[in-house]
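Rather than argue in generalities, we have chosen a single entry, letters for residues, whole numbers for local backbone shapes, without further comment.
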Amino acid sequence: GNDSPDVTVLDPSGLSIGFIGHPGYVFDELENTYVTQQKLTFTSGDHQIKTGLQVKSSDFELFGGGNPNGSYLVQLDQGQLDQLAQAGVGSDLQPADLPADVQVLSYGIELRPNSFQKRQNILSVFLEDQWTVGPRFNLNIGLRYDYDDLSKGGGKQGDFNNLAPRLSANYALSDRSSIRAGYGIYYDKILYAVYSDALQFNSNSSDYKKQIQALIDQGVLPADTDIEAVTNEGNLVASADNVTYLQGPGPEELQDQRAGIFSNELRILNPDGYQNPYSHQIMLGFQHKASENTIFYLDLMHNRSYNLFRLRNLNAPAPYPIDPDQVLVRTPEEADLSRPIPIGSDAMGNFATIDGDLLRGVARNVVMTESAGRSNYYALNFTLQKERGADDYA
């Protein structure tokens, strides 16, 4: 059940024979959105002016991660395995059905299994002129502005330059045919997952902050990066030894491990903030009414998008060329030593050496979301639409 730990069960030979209890992951999001808007319309001659203001405020509570009830890796001996087989336990096996004295090989639990809350506020203003230029020609001219406060990220200010002009036109060639064209810039909001992931998979340990400072010193991050603003007390996983089955310590008992937990991947908020994704959208179309019940459309479209979100590993291994004369890949250990902040290992686990200090509360991969992706989209749509009318088909 959702209140139980997750348990990986091994047989006496070490072969995995079951995964029971909690599914091992949690994703529970609650979003409450409040929208206030006011729209006004004015008519003057051939012009119809529309204007509006909208404030959209969304309150998020995202509970995500692994298992807040702990994770056990256990191994049954032959007697315990035979006992379970004789009891006829099948696919409904629960963690409590295992012997209390089963051998626990490892135990881990999340240190901060709670929701990460943040409110997102978006302000939008628009002005539009629907102009009837002539009996056959209509022109629509508009301007829109959006501001999303999540764009601040770990920076000092948000993305304020989201001004979007729009223009569309429709010209009637005849009573049955017309051509239309349009161009506009369209902004998208900051994805909440970008922000929440950067908070959840983060750390504010002194070791991790020293790693971030080392990346700043190397020029990987901007010199004015505010380390306190980009880091957060995230949800790390702690472990405990010599644990009795189903009696593992809770997160409050293992908080002292936080400072020294090594992670394969941690994240930070972008110190430059986030740019809202936007696209240039261009359309050219032709419409013909073949009969009272049949309309034909032909539309050519092109979207060119910028500031798309992508993940960047700030501590990625150096490139490793492979060619026909060098087909052997390097080992993971060699790759770790080629990172901007090299990662080593000893009998106690992984570490980084920064300014002569051996630090264990660091990350192999330091990941950040950046607004640097681009895409192009082209489409030519043919549409034939027929209503049923007096016929037997549509």
The chain has one domain: 43-61+127-386.
